[in-house]
Amino acid sequence: MSFTSGGSRWPDVGLATAARGIATCGDFLAATTLTLTLQSTGAGGAAVAGVLLAATLPLVLLAPLTGRLADRVDSRALLIGAGLAQSLICLNLAYARHPLLVVCLIALLATGLAVTQPVLSALIPAMVRPADLPRATALNQTAGTLGVLAGPALAGFLVGWFGSRVPLLVGAASYLALVVAGLLIHTRRGGARRSMPSTADAAGTPDGAAVGWRLHRDPLLVAMVATLAGVIAAVGSINVIEIFYVRETLGASAATYGLVTGAWTLGVLCGAWIFARLARRFTDDAALVQAGLFLLGGCCLMVLVSVMVPVALLLVPIWLIGGVCNGGNSVFNNLVLARRVPEAARGRAFAAMGAAVQGAAMVGYLIGGLLLEVSQPRPLIVGCGVAGLLVLLGFVRPVRRATRTDRSRVAAIAGLAGAGPAGAGLATSVPVR
Q1: TM segments (predicted)?
Q2: What's the CA gap between 246 and 310, in Å, rounded?
């Protein structure tokens, strides 16, 4: 694949990660503000659910389009255009009052996120040398996680002191970070750069082969994304059930609930940096995917263990371990995707994985909401953990099969490359990693 030649461009990485963190904070600031406002004004559960769905659906439905935009249009133009559009939309949200208008505007805001996510994700590998990719990925993930942490907390503070308009105005300003990043980042993708020759990948295949690249043609990537989506769909209900389990079943205060939920996010941060260091030792993509299975198993196991605690504070170390596994798996997944996908197709690849994750999360939310109507939280959490482990067991054989196929293909490429000039021309007919 085409990584940057020469040294890594860390100033560009810093700008991209800062923009992602600030914009993510703006996303969660706006969504939390609107949810709090609608709930407090008696708009009802349907309106709140509509906001949550509107904030997620565009990421799923528009992934094929936004992924192609990220690969074909100048990244600078996309960041500037989407950042300005999101800022204007959030500005209008500050003055919108009708619930239907609010839902429509939040959907438009999420459409901008559907554009900027694959653009920033695909830019990171183009900024650094392959050896520095785990560290850059951890930085990018850290920025996003900090934004997720800061957004709701800032929304609660600002709504409490100033009402809904001020936090939405702050959110509108946060999207301008994307505009600044677009103007200052030197690394660029898409546009006229698609026609420029780029360096060859490790197998000797030029990035021009990206024209015919499709995710479903890579069995290892298919197995990785399908496993991740399956586990998220099975365990994702915990995000809906958790508040009822902590607050009602365990009788915890709002402050304790915030501490518990923050523990998982802190674990994600720690896991990203711990496993970014370990990822450098893996040169085999299949080994990274298999390691990811164990980390997903750790997440499911922690969900299952959480039902045994008598008090909510004991959930903190359990959630911390689960978050570490979650963060490590994310680093491994992003690294495998960046390694195997041609540079010119990375926007599509990251958009496809994001759509799978968001779509699976939506399934989890729906299942959790329905089951809470007929059952208590504790048995539902047991069901989440068991379901996640069963999904993982179901994917063990497909992952092993994809691993064998991939290693056989890599061995064939190595054999052709070692055959000298007679075999050199045949190597380009092997599918791109």
Answers
A1: 43-65, 77-94, 100-126, 138-162, 168-186, 220-245, 257-276, 288-312, 318-337, 349-368, 380-399
A2: 11
